[in-house]
Amino acid sequence: MSTPGARAVRVRFAPSPTGPLHVGGARTALFNWLFARHHRGAFVLRIEDTDRSRSTEAHIDAILDALRWLELDWDEGPPTPGYRQTERLALYQAHARRLVEAGRAYYCACPPAQLEAERRAARARGETYRYPGRCRERGLTAGALRLRVPAEGTTVVDDLIHGPVTFDHRELDDWILVRSDGTPTYNFCVVVDDVTMQITHVIRGSDHLSNTPKQILCYEALGYPVPRFAHVSMILGPDRQRLSKRHGATSVQAFREAGFLPDAMVNYLARLGWAHGDREVFTREELVELFDLKDVSPSPAIFDHAKLAWLNQQHMKRLDPARLAALAAPFVRAAGFDPGDPARLAGIMATLRERARTLREAVEVGRFYWERPRGYDPAAARALLTAEGRARLDALIARLEQLPEFTPAALEAAFRELVAALGLRLVDLAQLARLAVTGTTASPPIFDVLALLGREETLARLRAACAAAR
Ligand code: GLU
Fold it and tell me: Cβ contacts of residue 133 below 8 Å, gap of 6+?
């Protein structure tokens, strides 16, 4: 919780809308959201759309949609105007003027061809190009605007995850804040946005760590307090290469379509870098309560699809059946079936969650709830759908026609009476009934299945199996 007197926590997630939301971005969003909720601070969403050639409205919509699905609600941001960089150009210009007036930035008129030639020569020598500061003292009034970076000394990024990281100013150069065509650069926009949005903690991917010393020098030049920084490690595939499509699904939308639960996704993303002992399963509320940046590892995290699937099943098992049914209904529809009565669907899902890792898998293993078996497992049919099997099915049909109540308990009692009368074991009759109603001998608990199918449907399937027996 925030200490008295400390500035209220304000964090932001700042996606560039150049593609859908991937797991890396989603995890950055989540860590910011958890940090904000833990400290009862504000979570700001900002769209970094200055790269107009690669940013699209469709990507913005997809990112917002994925965040809503993950239930990472933001306190400030779209659709309120002013949270897209393209709406904030006047702010960048005003801050650029301040830097010029304070002598902290200067105009550079070096021809692009000259800079390009120097850059190429540096690359040929195996060096990183640094602008030598030719225009520093020329007092120009037009051109590209560069930050005056101290030639000597160091800037330390006191990172909350990595500890202090020192950058020598000789590694930096007078970087461009505003291009000669008037467009502000990415690093400059981020600084102006973070100061004007009063961001206290910048939590972002460690691919941005090398930008941070440049940005800190810009805060200092503007005379603003520098926020705290926390750079979250990269996410790798099992081969320890940066996570990509080669490793399977990476967009949040793809996981949604594959039938993962938002709470499971949030739980899994939190565990990519953050840990609380060796515990794996957390509710959202528990994550909010326990999340702390000091428990985020500086080492890369490995994305493990099998573990996510396991975790998803754990969440499916813990979820309120009515909610599980509501989440499953679109998958039932997508498979071409009518989800039907919500209470019945909740009952169905309660039997399937033991046998499936995703909602999609649950619908797949539970197809028999919505369609009659198209055939019978051949080996089981040879063993069970015999003349003897037919006689047993006949007896079962006669018994179930008479059953006053078609509940799991009543069904179990009827099965037990019948097997006692016929001198059978319960499993013999149960397997036969299973094969008749599902087409296979593996299914959720048979009395639940029959009760959920209802008397009419159960009897129809038992009769069909009778007719198919030799
Ligand atoms: N827009 C940047 C990105 O999508 C994030 C910048 C930042 O968090 O400072 O990678």
Answer: 151, 173, 174
77 touches 42 (CB < 8 A): no
How far, in Å, from the CA of 162 to the mean position of ligand 1? 18
Nearest to 217 by CA among 177, 257, 179, 249: 177
Cα dihedral 438/439/442/444 (nearest 10):
0
Cα of first residue to Cα of last residue in the chain, in angstroms, is: 72
The whole-chain average pLDDT of the chain stands at: 96
Structure tokens at 354: 């033991």
What is the number of the ligand 1 atom nearest to the C-alpha of 48? 1
Three-point CA angle 331, 34, 38, nearest 5°: 135
Distance 330 CA to ligand 1 centre (A): 33
- Nearest 5°: phi and psi at 428? -60, -45
Dist CA 420 CA 408 (whole Å): 18
Q: pLDDT category, 5, cuts 50, 70, 90? A: low
Mind telling me the catalytic residues?
245
Confidence of residue 248 (pLDDT cuts 50, 70, 90): confident
Is residue 16 lining ligand 1, measured as CB closer than 6 Å?
yes
Give tens-digit pLDDT for 50-101. 988 999 999 999 999 999 999 999 999 999 999 999 999 999 999 999 999 9
C-alpha 288 to ligand 1 mean position (Å): 23
Q: Ligand 1 in contact with 14 (CB < 6 A)?
A: yes
CA of 24 to the centre of ligand 1 (A): 11
d(CA 205, CA 349): 38
pLDDT in tens, 138-166: 999 999 999 999 999 999 999 999 999 99
Measured from the Cβ of residue 425, the count of other Cβ atoms closer than 10 Å reads 10
User: Which mutation among 32, 190, 193, 210 tests ligand 1's pocket best, with the greatest number of atoms within 8 A of CB?
Assistant: 190
* 3-class secondary-structure state, position 12: strand
Q: For residue 380, give every residue at least 6 positions away whose Cβ sits within 8 Å of its Cβ, in sequence order, or none.
A: 431, 435, 440, 441
CA distance 433 to 436: 5
Q: Which of 16, 63, 232 to mutate to test the pocket of ligand 1 (most atoms within 8 A of CB)?
A: 16
Q: Is residue 43 a contact partner of residue 197, using CB atoms and an 8 Å limit?
A: no
CA dihedral 462, 466, 469, 470 (to 10 degrees): 170
CA distance 175 to 91: 19
208 burial via Cβ count (<10 Å: 0-12, 13-18, 19+): middle
Give just the sign of the alpha carbon dihedral 356, 68, 230, 84. Answer: positive
What are the φ and ψ backbone dihedral angles of 80, each rounded to 5 degrees?
-60, 130
